[in-house]
Every structure is written in C-alpha cells, then in structure tokens.
Automatic annotation (TrEMBL), chain A:
The protein, known as: Acyl carrier protein
Cited NCBIfam families: PRK09184.1
Carrier domain location: 2-83
Record key words, sorted: Phosphopantetheine, Phosphoprotein
PROSITE patterns in alphabetical order: CARRIER, PHOSPHOPANTETHEINE
Organism of provenance: Oceanihabitans sediminis
Record carries keyword Iron: no
Source superkingdom: Bacteria
Length: 85, 354
C-alpha cells in the first residue's frame, strides 16, 4: 500500500504539472481538492483518466469521484480494491 | 478627426536577454545552430505557480511579455488584447495529437487539448489582467503580428479604445521543428549568428519569441514612437515588391531619402533573400538593419523588428550588431520595416519619432 501511495504522488505531480512540489509535500491524508492541494475540475478529469490508464478502473458514476479523490489514502484504498491491472 | 497611434511600451522575450530592462543588444548571445530557443526569464517571478502549471512555454512567454509591457506603460489593465501567432500553442497541440496516436485514441486528457488553441495566449493574458474587453487572435502566417497591429491601429484611430495590448508570439515544438527540417525550411547545417546572411544555403535558422506592446491614441512623454502605417500583401512577385514599396511611400507622402532606417527581415535563405536584396539596392544610401540572426525566423519574428525599431526611435541609436551597412544617421525620424517569409505574406510598417 505504501508503494502505491508513493506511486500515486509521483503520478499526480507529473500528470498535473505540479512542478514545485515533491512527494514529501503531499501527506497521505491531505485534501487533494479545495483547501488542500487546490486541485480543480480539470484535474479531476486528469485523475479519472489516470485511474483508467494505469489501474484499469473506469469510473462510471462521477459522484463516486468526490469520495475516491478525497486524499491519497482514499485513492489508494479504492485502487487496491478495484484495480484490474 | 482620426487619432494618431503611439507605442507606449515595449517588451520582448527572445534568444537575447531582451526581457531585461534597459538592455538593448549590447552583449549578444552568439549561436551556432539551425534552431535557437529563447533565453527564459524566471517565469515564477511573474506568474503564480498554480496558474503557470498548465501553461506551455509559448503561453508563459506571452503572459510575461504582456506583464512587462503593461508595467513599462504604467498601466494595470488595457481596453483590448490583440495577439498574433503563426503556429499558436504548438507544444500542447503536439502533446495532444501524440497522445491520440500513442494511446490508440483512448485515455485522452483535457489539459493539453484546452491549451492547444491559437487564442490560448490572448485568453490567458485577459484572465491574468481580468480584462473583459475585445480579445482577438490573428493567425495569418508571417502577417499574424501585422494583422494584430492593423486591427489595433484602426480601433485607436477611430477612438474605439484608448489603450490596446498587442503582441506576436510563437514557440518551437519538437515535432514541428523535425518536420520543418525534413522539408528543408530549416537549414540543414548549423550557422553562426554573425554569418547568417552569407551562409549561401536554403532554409532559415528557426527561432521563437514573444514581443508585446501597449499602443495608445494619447501621446505621452514616455512614448517610443508613432505607428504611422501598416500594409500587408499575401503574395508579391520579387519584381513587384519595389513597385509596391514606392506606392507605399507615396501614400505616406514620403520619398526614399526620407527614410532614416530600413529594417529588413533577411533570414539567410538564398531562395528568398532576393526580395530583400532588391529593396536594399534601392535604399543603398539609407542605413539598413537586420535582426533574424538575433531572434531566429518564426511567423511573428517581425514583432522583434517592431521592438528593435521602437527602441531605435526612442533611444536614437542602432545597436552595432543589427547594422546591415555602414551608413550613419544623425537623427532617427522615420523607420521602415519590411518582412516576408518564403515569398509570401509581405508587410511594410512605418514608424515615426514622437
């Protein structure tokens, strides 16, 4: 699980061009949207594509995203349970 | 009565350190290449990281150049933003198209697509300035900047706007550069900047850059120059250029000897430099300048010439490195710019001392 969390942080930094951030800057329970990392709706789309491409998870219900993308912890838990690759 | 149009401020990001305040080509970056990139300012000093993270280089160059131009004009905002670009945000276009191919038309993400349009730079500038006025982007190959210039000139003359931010911006993209090498639009060999015009080969040394200006219909003590006239032609035969040039001078009540400085867009391509050489011969008693050895060739490279000419008229000095002949002039009053690319999209731009 820890390796997955590290991988997620690296992917998020790369995919979302968070040039000034390192993996150490993102805590596992930091809020990714809103007051935390400050990600926005375009980033949410990028994350949905990332789940599909990297882990074979297709999110069909957009409402699910709100809970899944809350933090690195919630993302890692969902991916561990639903990944197909 | 039609109002006059003045250049209030200038800003340039190019392959020289033109983004530095008061720099005027004193120390030159001498290249030996067939493609030259800009010298980047510290973008973070101008753009918040959250905003910058989705911006490709061309957008950053445009936004920063626009901020420098506004600062130079002492303005917080403008009435309109008019941008010219030949290729637009080519890096994001390449990224998006590559992703389509690499991922077999799946897993497409929105960012590069959103940012890949030609008017992204103009849009981002307006967002940064919170300018909700007229916003237009001209995409017309090597007449893109002049089209923006012409639009701004008409609006200011008719007093529809007071202050307009205009600019020309183009960025280099890896794939586009590769294609331009394949079709020999880029020189096959590396060329020293100082030897560009004697390279005696086909193709150009490609470059990139962003040059922005605030134009206004109010004359201030700090003005750089007056924009007197702009004229564009899509197609002209080599022998027609001189004829059209004479007509342009006549329309502006000028004679050849009234021109104090002629700024030519020679890029060292033996196939097309003849267009410039014809004019150069006609103006053999006039001081002449060139600039594409300093910034490279790109669709809005003429905006660098506009920056150069504006500074010449304000400072009353032509940098040694830009001199094409050894004629001297006591006072620069009237400067004429001529540009074309591969025999198409010709422009004449006339600037006068304020």
């Amino acid at each position: 699980m820890d390796a997955l969390k590290q991988e997620l942080k690296e992917n998020i930094i790369e995919q979302l061009n968070l040039e000034d951030m390192t993996t150490e800057d993102i805590a596992n329970d930091d809020m990714l949207f809103g007051d935390g990392l400050g990600l926005d709706s375009i980033d949410a789309l990028e994350l949905i594509v990332m789940l599909d491409k990297s882990y074979g998870i297709k999110l069909t219900d957009p409402k699910e995203g709100r809970a899944i993308f809350e933090s690195i912890n919630t993302m890692a838990a969902y991916i561990t349970e639903h990944r197909t690759k | 009565m039609m109002k006059k149009v003045y250049i209030q401020s200038v800003a340039s990001i190019s392959a020289q350190k033109t983004f530095e305040k008061d720099y005027f080509l004193e120390e030159i970056e001498d290249y030996e290449a067939n493609v030259i990139n800009v010298i980047n300012p510290v973008y973070k000093d101008y753009i918040p990281p959250a905003a910058a993270r989705r911006m490709a280089k061309g957008i950053k160059m445009g936004v920063v150049a626009s901020k420098i131009a506004l600062h130079d004009a002492g303005l917080e905002s403008v009435d309109a933003v008019i941008t010219g670009t030949g290729m637009g945000c080519v890096r994001d276009s390449e990224k998006f198209v590559s992703a389509i191919i690499d991922n077999d038309e799946q897993y497409l993400t929105p960012t590069s697509f959103i940012q890949s349009t030609h008017n992204t730079v103009g849009g981002q500038i307006a967002l940064e300035l919170q300018c909700k006025g007229y916003n237009f982007t001209y995409v017309h190959a090597s007449n893109s900047f002049e089209s923006a210039l012409f639009d701004a000139k008409l609006q200011l003359e008719l007093n529809e706007e007071k202050n307009i931010l205009i600019g020309g911006v183009d960025e280099l993209g890896d794939h586009t550069t590769k294609i331009n090498k394949l079709i020999n639009h880029i020189k096959a060999e590396a060329v020293k900047s100082s030897e560009l015009l004697v390279s005696n080969t086909t193709g150009a040394v490609y470059g990139e850059g962003a040059n922005f200006f605030v134009l206004s219909n109010e004359k201030k003590d700090t003005c750089y120059a007056e924009l007197a006239s702009v004229k564009m032609f899509n197609t002209l035969a080599e022998e027609e250029v001189l004829q059209e040039f004479k007509l342009f001078l006549k329309e502006n009540n000028l004679k050849v000897e009234d021109i104090d400085l002629l700024v030519l867009g020679n890029n060292g391509d033996i196939e097309f430099d003849g267009y410039y050489n014809n004019l150069s011969k006609e103006f053999n008693n006039t001081q002449q300048a060139y600039y594409k050895h300093l910034c490279g060739e790109f669709h809005t490279a003429s905006s660098f010439a506009f920056w150069l000419a504006s500074k010449v008229l304000k400072i009353q000095s032509l940098p040694e490195v830009a001199k094409l002949n050894q004629k001297t002039i006591a006072t620069y009053k009237t400067v004429l710019l001529y540009n074309q690319y591969r025999g198409e999209n010709h422009s004449f731009t006339l600037l006068k001392k304020c």
